[in-house]
Design a protein that fits this description.
The protein is α+β, with helices and mostly antiparallel strands and 355 residues long. It has two domains: 4-165, Aminotransferase class 4, branched-chain amino acid transferase, N-terminal domain (D-amino Acid Aminotransferase, Chain A, domain 1), CATH 3.30.470; 176-341, Alpha-Beta Barrel (D-amino Acid Aminotransferase, Chain A, domain 2), CATH 3.20.10. Helices cover 24% and strands 30% of the residues. The strands form two sheets. Strands 1, 2, 3, 4, 5, 6, 7, 8 and 18 form a nine-stranded mixed beta sheet that branches. Helix 2 (88-101) crosses helix 3 (109-122). The chain binds pyridoxal-5'-phosphate.
């Protein structure tokens, strides 16, 4: 791919934010990647431009009918000064799966990865140095064809923007409190729950708004049909350590197939833990929490990596987990995965690639 590159002059580049005040998704690097798709012509005009506003037709289909998908991955700067991507090919694969589900065009995974690397090289000073910080990379695709009517669009834009990020949760690596909702649902069987598509997040806002008003960090979603089986939490997959068995909901189509989830499953199996991907009812989890056989609970996702859960709240009742403290397994998984991401631990699965 021949990427046309138009770079900012040194003097026009932004001042870097301090690593202590990064937050999540509030600062953006100097440049962005763009490529267009036109039916009959395919992908064309790849370019790296100064970060800036898009010009869109008011009838652009994504604004009306929601053909919009995204991905999220990170570039990590190790103590050795090298910049690494973690399982980026899996993100490209998942982008294509989301695109397929939303009747959007497939991308060339290798070419998009090359473009992402080129963008990171251009903006490499934006990969922060402090341990725990990283450069969040956000590829996203949306329909730009101007028409009103419900059908797949014939023109799309794919862009990549990048944001230096600190720790995801305000509380840091401390157990979070989760509100189990049986009032709202996130996804339905046969729906788009397994696609990283914009509408899923719009649909989730009301539940998380209400949970936050009550002092909770996130919502735990139950299945749409019976409101009984656990799906996932906020924008993370969820795991339970029941005695010595690690259990997570199976991928049934309504759950987002997380790459961190997959990494945890690999590690846990290789460490000799019993692992089950299955249906898991909220009553089973709560009963085991009361009987102290629910040893740990944690969420997994690129943003937080591992997010220990210290409390579940369901139907007016609190259920503490591991006395509200971070469990040993959550800590061990966090240390291992971040160790690999920062190039401090041996990468036996070939998950990282140095840029
Ligand atoms: C992105 C996402 C996840 C986590 O996926 P990772 O690949 O681990 O970052 C989980 N659930 C939802 C709804 C998501 O959007």
């Amino acid at each position: 791919m021949d990427i046309k590159t138009e770079l900012l002059h040194e003097s026009e580049r932004k001042e870097l934010p301090s690593s202590s005040g990064l937050g999540f998704g509030t600062h953006f690097s100097d440049h962005m990647f763009l490529i267009n798709y036109t039916e009959g012509q395919g992908w064309h005009d790849p370019r790296i431009l100064p970060y800036g506003k898009f010009s869109l037709d008011p009838a652009a289909a994504s604004l009306h009918y929601g053909q919009a998908i995204f991905e999220g991955l990170k570039a990590y700067r190790g103590k050795d000064g090298k910049i690494r991507l973690f399982r980026a090919r899996d993100n490209m694969e998942r982008l294509n799966h989301s695109a397929w589900r939303m009747c959007m065009p497939q991308v060339d995974k290798e070419e998009l990865l090359e473009a992402i690397k080129a963008l990171i090289r251009v903006d490499k000073r934006w990969v922060p140095e402090a341990r725990g910080t990283s450069l969040y990379v956000r590829p996203f695709m949306f329909a730009i064809e101007a028409f009103l009517g419900v059908r797949p669009a014939r023109e799309y834009m794919l862009s990549v923007i990048m944001s230096p990020v600190g720790a995801y949760y305000a509380e840091g690596f401390n157990p979070i409190k989760i509100f189990v909702t049986d009032k709202y649902i996130r996804a339905v069987p046969g729906g788009v729950g397994e696609a990283k598509t914009a509408g899923n997040y719009a649909a989730s806002l009301m539940a998380s708004k209400e949970a936050k008003e009550l002092g909770f960090t996130q919502v735990l979603w139950l299945d749409a049909a019976e409101r009984r089986y656990i799906e996932e939490v906020g924008t993370m997959n969820i795991f339970f350590l029941l005695e010595d068995t690690l259990v997570t909901p199976a991928l049934t189509g309504s759950i987002l197939p997380g790459i961190t989830r997959d990494s945890v499953l690999h590690l846990a199996r290789d460490w000799g833990l019993k692992v089950e991907e299955r249906r898991i009812a909220i009553d089973e989890v709560l009963k085991k929490a009361e009987g102290h056989s629910l040893k740990e609970c944690f969420g997994t996702g690129t943003a937080a990596v591992i997010s220990p859960v210290g409390l579940l709240y369901y139907r007016d009742k609190d259920y503490a987990i591991n006395s509200g403290k971070t469990g040993n397994l959550a800590q061990r998984l966090f240390d291992e995965i971040t160790g690999v991401q920062y190039g401090e631990r041996e990468d036996i699965y070939g998950w990282t690639e140095v840029i």
